[in-house]
Amino acid sequence: MSPHTTDTGMQVETLGQSLTRIVDVLVPGGQGWPAASDAGVQHAILMRLLDKKGDAGLAALSGTLARYGFDNPRGTQDEIDATVRLEAEEPLLFQRLRSQVNYAYYESPVIVSMIDRSGTPYSLIPHRDGYNLAPFDASTQTPRHGRGRWTPTGEVKPVDISGLQLQTRTTEKWGLDR
User: How far is CA 168 from CA 10, 48, 92, 164, 171, in A?
Assistant: First the structure.
């Protein structure tokens, strides 16, 4: 059986191997957590890309990753350097790829199970049953890191919007022009 080749001659297996290298740079795993490729992230990305962009999308991503050297195994530091270059030179592509890696990783049944077992309620299908969360405990859940701000529920005050005249004013372009 020969490897699947797209209309453009690009082998899907080669792209899968290239994706394996970059996803493992983005989520290398460790401390008991699997690397992204061990969770199957590269396969989820391939399927989504094929579904949305077809063979042309696969070929385009393959060409881009090849330009950065992901089509040939070179070693972790070279792959990290290539990922840094990709982020600097093609920030939109990098952001989309990083988002896809994160989505695919945290929707992996293996990762969902590990998160759930760690004590943080997490489910593949949370909308079915919801999450059984304990009531908020200010003694253990109050932010102490000093970033941003937090207002205890009892101190939240209603905002006076009477001056906006929402009952009589008509907004256009979702409120940009009044």
Answer: 61, 46, 42, 9, 10
Selection from 71, 73, 48 nearest residue 58 by Cα: 48
| pLDDT of 2 over the 70 cut | no
pLDDT at residue 136 tops 90: no
- The rounded distance, in Å, linking the Cα atoms of 34 and 23 is 12
3-state secondary structure of 77: helix
In single-letter form, the type of residue at position 77 comes to: Q
The answer to whether residues 61 and 14 touch, using CB atoms and an 8 Å cutoff, is: no
Q: What share of the chain is helix, strand, coil (3-state, %, to 5)?
A: 55, 5, 40
Q: Calculate the dihedral angle through the C-alpha atoms of 63, 69, 73, 76, rounding to the nearest 10 degrees.
A: -130
Structure token digits, residue 2: 């020969």
Instruction: Give the tens place of pLDDT for each residue, 22-52.
Output: 999 999 999 999 999 999 999 999 999 999 9
